[in-house]
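Collaboration report, partner site 2.

Our partner group contributed sequences for two proteins of shared interest, and the home lab folded both. The records are reproduced in the order in which they were received, starting with the first partner submission.
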Amino acid sequence: MRSLFIVGSQGIPADYGGLETFADETATRLASRGLPVYVTCEKTPDEPAGPAEYKGVSLLYVEAPDNNLRTIIADVKALWRCYRLADPGDVVYLLGYGVGPFAWPMLKALKAKGVKFWLNPDGLEWKRPRWPAWARFYLRISERFLLHQADRVICDAAAIQAHHQRRWGVDPSATEVIEYGAPVVDRDDLSDAVLARRDEYLAEYDLAPGDYYTYVGRFVPDNNLELMVRGMLDDRIERRLLIFAKHDTDDPFYQKIHTIVRTSAHPDKVIFTGGVYDQPLLQALRLGEHAYFHGHEVGGTNPALVEAMGLGSFILALNTVYNREVLGDAGLFFGKSVESFVQTVMKAERLSDAEVQQHRERAVGRVRRHYNWERIADDYERLLLGAPAERTTEPEAAW
């Protein structure tokens, strides 16, 4: 039975991040089915190594300095560890393409040993405006290089697969679409104590369940946070916005958004909560939201969007091909302008409770039918056993 080596995440168990959650949820499920799975885990030279195993998954620790080259150094070292351990026919699966051409010697060695190399490009990283021009150029080169080195390219959305085939000429027979998943969580899954803590948290801002919208994600320009904040400050919108995002007060983008809010006529309508890392509390806060705003613009199946769907959120999302593929008819879409955003929010506020509930139920239904970790693990198991992944038609039809 071939072994699977997952490289490119910071490691498991997952503390945060989409790639870490993917590695955790997928690797542990495959290991529980008897498949030999290894996950490489990053650590700084000063950090002690963790346990050798987690839920049946073998953990391989690689040291990398805590600087801007950490990802590249960690991935090169991780590929070397995999080369030393892997046997012919095994699979090394790289998440992301940040290591780029620096991986070439190791990829050549893996190929010579008969080890398969799979790549999950994880969206279109080079399109993110937060990167300087030189970094975007490097990421484009890295994307093209690694796509043509991979024995199999696994995309997290049909639109991403189409992009790689159209732009870089990737062989369609060497690509698969396997998305990310999310759990389904409802109010009954949370204890009364957690709900009480939720209500205490909201009381600090003079809020109650149903009074607010939420944004959950990174504090970065490519998530269109500025657009949504400017829209929320419009007089026509009554509810307030809670921004659950870690921020650095010295970051120029945070300072810009904070100034926009502070100097507006309604500075109390946007609340910067910072990151909330108590997962049950965050889930309770999100179950009390009126709607969730998803402004992510770059990438395929975004983990934050699927997570919101699993929570049964009423979702207002930026109108992109990726968001439409994932959300389908389970939410509303706004264009990339403040006025379009405001009009969509006003439309959402005019909907009846029954209409909102229909959107919530559709979102949960899509997760139950397709965007769930068991189905995703099934597809990876089939690929490892030499069979093609089984597809439903739901995401493509929506796209």
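Second partner submission, folded after the first:
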Amino acid sequence: MAKYLIEAHYTVEGAKAIASHGGAARRAAAAKMIESVGGKLEAFYFAFGDVDVYAIIDLPDNIAAAAVALAINQTGVVAGKTVVLIPAEDMDKAAKKAVDYRPPGQ
């Protein structure tokens, strides 16, 4: 499974729903959605500042990640940003992979 970081930003309507129904209910709903596509919610935190929620999730593939992103963003009450998280071991493999690249202007 691949790991993803979701950054969520609530609209006024979304914030009102959190205030009305609570944070634990929102975390449970997120876990249920992620499980419905074969994934697992690893962490879910509310935050101050530009981002209202940070969630780390395990998903089977990018198709599941895209499905989750579409489900979140089409509601209109929350906007999500998905970041692919790369384990250190995969970065080691990437660093050793030969790449044929020519920079612009050369």
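Feedback sent to the partner group on the second submission included the following. The longest helix spans residues 23-36. DSSP finds four helices and four strands in the chain.
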